[in-house]
Amino acid sequence: MSKDNPEVLHEDNHVIIVNKRSSDLVQGDSTGDESLDEKVKAYIREKYGKPGDVFLGVVHRLDRPVSGCVVYARTSKALSRLSELFRTREVKKQYWAIVSDRPPAEEGLLRNYLKKNEKQNKSYVYETEVKGSKQAELSYRLLARSERFYLLEIDLHTGRHHQIRAQLAAAGCPVKGDLKYGSKRSNEGGGISLHARRVSFIHPVRKTEVTVEAPLPDDKTWRLFRNV
What does CATH list as the number for 7-223? Predict the structure, then answer.
């Protein structure tokens, strides 16, 4: 993906899916940095010669240091229907993560309670329910390993704040580069080795299945797993 143009993975009249870089914001915030949604709007404006404002609805988010599939709505009809699909967990999202420490098993189910600390923008993991916590569940399997790293495939069963990052850290294998959750070293560029690899859902208007896979980031660690 070039510096200014988003890498488009799927595009139709109602939906556009792009491959987010780990440095991109999904939606503008107080930093004032140019966000991915603004880049996508500019792309649509230029491609279709649309004057003035371009409609683009944000239906879900990825943490800034995470890369991979981001789904946007191009119409208000698609926005309301996609938002409901995400709310009712009818959108299947699969993640890949690189970790430095061996996971507790080659595959498994992690079930914990997470409580978000707003001031720290961090979630804490508990084995039993505490006040203000929410149950979090994911399954993972070991896809591949290199001399120093392990590649995990993760299916989310709940959608909690920093869920994958917090639960993997609690299991003893924090995501590579994720200093906030216990990784020993940062990644070059400040991202973390967590990638929204695949997204699948029934199209909100056409009612056909949409499945999209995001190419892996182009860095030396991800390149170890290009052929998985």
Answer: 3.30.2350.10
